[in-house]
Amino acid sequence: MSAARLGVAVALALTLAACQQREAAAPASEASAPKTPPAATATINANHAPARPALAPVADYVLPGPLAPDLGVEQLRQLFGADNVAIDEHLPGAEGEEFRGVRLFDKDPTRRARIYFQDSETLRGLSIVVVDEPGSRWRLDNGLKIGQPLSELSRLNGKPLRFFGMDWDYGGVISDWNGGALAPKDGDPVRRNARLSLADNAPPQAKVPTGDGEFSSDDKRYPEQGSLLRVGELSVSFPGEDDL
Q: What is the C-alpha separation between 25 and 137, in angstroms, rounded?
């Protein structure tokens, strides 16, 4: 795996993939691919590759929506407008690392999003989309939104959920939906993720779970956590485009 791909995998782990306890399958090896002479490849690409139809502009901000692992920068520009798609050399990653990727609507916090790729050098293989702005218009197609309190997540899920304690690299990551309504669906390769943060109006001495252990939303030791913790980040993560 190239350093670029490994780096994005680390960024993915920071944002939520670690809590899924699932690794994306590695891309198919170049060695196993059939060898085609360069001249023949050029002829095939020039004469037989069908033109990809243009994508309709996005009017609603739902994830994953039209996003898929085989989309590149040009398709993102078709979906969101060329002026709203900016290549960024310094997207935040794990433990202070930075990666090349794309920012959507960088001047509009209500629509801002970060997009990471399997190959950050070529911006190929859309891997993960992250939204973490307060008041964001983005939402997941399962009903999750930025700012929802933990108590509402539990209600929507229909069962208690588990998450990592606050104040460390994976703090607030929801690790287990306990088979509830918000749990990943069998056979769905797209993962919908949420991460909790402390509410802006929480008192300085708010009693919420901290540290790298897992905690439950119905933990009696933290009777106020349902209102003190809220959704601070949403993301969707995709398998490799060769894995679909």
A: 32
Name the residue among 118, 146, 119, 105 with its Cα closest to residue 237.
118
pLDDT tens for 37-86 read: 444 444 444 455 456 678 888 889 999 999 999 999 999 999 999 999 99
The 3-state DSSP class for residue 133 equals coil
Cβ atoms within 10 A of the Cβ of 178, count? 16
Pick from 114, 90, 69, 93: which is nearest to 6 by CA?
93
| Distance between CA atoms of residues 36 and 126, nearest Å | 26
Between CA 220 and CA 228, with CA 224 as vertex, the angle to 5 degrees is 135
For 181-211, the pLDDT digits (tens) are 999 999 999 999 999 999 999 998 899 999 9
Query: What SS3 state is found at 57?
Result: coil
Torsion of CA 200, 62, 14, 183, to 10 degrees: 100
The single residue listed with the structure tokens 């252990």 is 213
Contact assessment for residue 96 and residue 87, using Cβ atoms and an 8 Å cutoff: no
